[in-house]
Amino acid sequence: MDLINSFRDKDKILALSKIIKQRSKKPLNIMEICGGHTHSIMKFGLPQLVGENINFIHGPGCPVCIMPRSRIDEAIAIAGIEGVIFCTLADMMRVPGSKGSLAQLRAGGADIRALYSPLDVISIAQENPDKKVVFFAIGFETTTPMSAVVVEQAINLGLKNLFVHINHVTVPAPVRAIMSDKDVKIDAFLGPSHVSVITGSAIYEELADEFGTPIAVSGFEPLDLMDSILNLVNQHENGTHKVYNEYARVVSNQGNLKAKELINKYLEPCDFEWRGLGVIPMSGMKLRDEFGMLDARKHFNVEVGESKESKACICGEILRGKAKPYDCKVFGKVCNPQNPIGSCMVSGEGACAAYYKYTKRG
Amino acid sequence: MQKIMLAHGGGGQEMNDLINGLIFKTFNNEILSQNNDSAILNLSGKLAFSTDSFVVSPIKFAGGDIGKIAVCGTVNDLAMVGAKPKYLSCALIIEEGLDIAELKEILESIKSSADIARVSIVCGDTKVVSKGSCDKIFINTSGVGQIIKEAKVENLKIGAKILLSGDVGRHGAVILASRNELRLQSDLQSDCKPLNSVIEALFKAGIEPFSMRDATRGGLSAVLNEWAKACGYDIKINEENIAVSDEVMGICEMLGFEPYELANEGTFVLAIDPKDEIKALEILREFDSNANTIGEILDSNKGNVIIQNSYGASRFMEPPKGELLPRIC
Questions:
Q1: How close does chain A come to B229, measured CA to CA in Å?
Q2: pTM of this prediction?
Q3: Is B192 exposed, middle or buried (0-12, 13-18, 19+ CB in 10 A)?
Q4: Interchain proximity A45–B314, CB inside 8 Å
Q5: CB-based contact B311 A13, cutoff 8 Å
Q6: A295-342: pLDDT as tens digits
Q7: Is the ipTM of this complex over 0.85?
Q8: Which domains are seen in chain B, by residue range?
């Protein structure tokens, strides 16, 4: 089976486009929780294929976008310490903190590395016994198991120079926070796909019941998305609010039990400050106390002071689904991918970056 | 195994042995062997002159190496303005510790690529730098060529057809796949090759492209955006007509990249008069069956590149920005 072209079949997409337009009678606000979905929706021009009744709203599902400036400031403070090799994933390098980004610190001589795989920190730590290697772990449930594996391997190998700075977050908590805001009008959700591979689709059932909103766990390809949108349209028109698992080829009801077990062994829930959403109780993950010797926050104990967001940037409003990127005064002007003011413009999965890249004006 | 030492760049006997015993011997031609301070060339008429530096890592990759790319890069820059490449310079900056056998392989690759492109290497320079000052070897090549038919960006005009000479993204994808941190297994080969023969074939058939550009760093997307900005008109591209191999698409999908932003080293874009489209395509396809017409310059002066997919939806094709970083999840 061709895993790319089969899910981009022109005839099927156009047929779905026709059916969605026919069945969509009432206005429907769909929030795509995951930044990858925002990216796909804009890349494949899906708003042009679904009719005017459907409005896509970007959600809080990009791990780079939701990172509060205080955590970035902590990363920059640790990365600037003499003898530290600071490792993180891709786009995190470019997110502006209060005093610049990790990429700028790297240009100034700090040893900061963008990893392709979290497990690379193990070999970096082994090859640099005289250095302290720090892994800045970010992401939703998708990337959390890999961080748990890093912790497990560090323990098994007896590595004394490897530390992890855990910034993992979970999906249901911000969804609940957004839906509890009276100003937010969301009728349906596209559920994140990679996250759901780990969590399973069952975690959304409570949310769908609580808020009366249908949720379609969807793959990233245009055919996945169009099929999921059709399901949401049908449910919206019929007044139902079930969880539809469109991505059943990889997402099961209960998810990856082994990965979940591994996460629970090393990590536990904690309160977490979300950019634009504030502190959400038990929405993040931290190392369990018995593995505190690996915790970079405890080991380095850096003080970063108050971290303020840029006043011009409305990333917070965008992440809450209250504004679109082009509602922001600095979007595409002062704030662009070369000079991101807010984190939504940094990550390829960020709403502003996707809107700018593919439409400029939305 | 013999290795390059700082002494090989010191101006003494070791340097002479390296230059005369290996470099001159490999590149051997009448002009170079005169061993003057400067090459004395026989040229007339309008000339093209170009230079480029090559720092590719790893220095050997599927379908080529730093030597081949150093020749193709400059030859192609000359060919893109409608010149027949004639002479190249070759300056080597070598890191102390490089195996001489490896250097020999690179020099032979430079020589064989130059032979295929029918250019002579007529002057050069060798510097050896201490360990850690460069990554194995850096190469600079400059080249001159005689203009046959001038192709310039300022010739771009409304209604011009945009043709692409092959599939896109192979060189960039090969380099990504071969880097240690990714360790991907792939049969993909770089498209690295000299393009002067196909350009000469177009000229021979009486086709005079308005403009040509090899889609190197920044890929197809960078070329089209530079053109749209330069001429001030919108360029509309039909996504279905752009050939992308399954391997390149797979790597892009996995890492979150666009194949249109990945580098090519033997694929070029040309803007031509619509009356020449069919003939030009015929010639391009003799060299690469993936060649195709991919779009046209519109009568709309916003300077954007608009790409339309097979479903009829359009979006902008933005120029690539920043370093290529893989997606997080």
A1: 16
A2: 0.89
A3: buried
A4: yes
A5: yes
A6: 999 999 998 887 777 778 888 888 888 888 889 988 988 888 878 888
A7: no
A8: 6-147 (3.30.1330.10), 153-316 (3.90.650.10)
